[in-house]
Amino acid sequence: MQSSARLPALPRRLCPSPTTAGILLGSDPRHVAVARRWAARSSRARPGLADRISLAASELVTNAQRHSASGGTGGTVRVELLRTRLHLELRVTDNGPRPGHDIDFPRVTDPADPLRIGGHGLRLVESLSMYWDWLGHAGGPLTVRAMFPPS
């Protein structure tokens, strides 16, 4: 008989260090609010900056759930905050593309239709942060990073 090991319930905190904090979220859309609250507290930043970081975390977790395998049953989203003397770095890592879907790398959409519903998340992250980019490869997990000034 095969035993099935149960993983701890999500969301759950990841092992913190003096410079990095992390949380692992699931595919539940309610985890977006958890990410927002966690990022504001974990940033240890002044209120205005903490608000910007938490809003960016919310947008990036939402994108991971909507556009990757992280939004499917058993999907996860890893959120980390790295603190250095020079910046705060928010990292959101998804589970890679959904099976049977085209690989779509993050990009800011064309602003031709500003009244369009949806598709403005990365534009918002771009306006909130000093810089954003992504790391990953075709078919694998993708990490979107957003840099903020030090607190």
TrEMBL record:
Keywords, alphabetical: Kinase, Serine/threonine-protein kinase, Transferase
UniProt-recorded Gene Ontology molecular function terms: protein serine/threonine kinase activity
Q: Which Pfam families match?
A: HATPase_c_2
Domain (Histidine kinase/HSP90-like ATPase): residue spans on this chain:
27-129
Query: What's the domain of life for this entry?
Result: Bacteria
Q: Which Gene3D superfamilies match?
A: Histidine kinase-like ATPase, C-terminal domain
- Read off the PANTHER family from this record: ANTI-SIGMA-F FACTOR RSBW (PTHR35526:SF3), ANTI-SIGMA-F FACTOR RSBW-RELATED (PTHR35526)
Please give the name of this protein.
Anti-sigma regulatory factor (Ser/Thr protein kinase)
**Source organism (scientific name):** Nocardiopsis sinuspersici
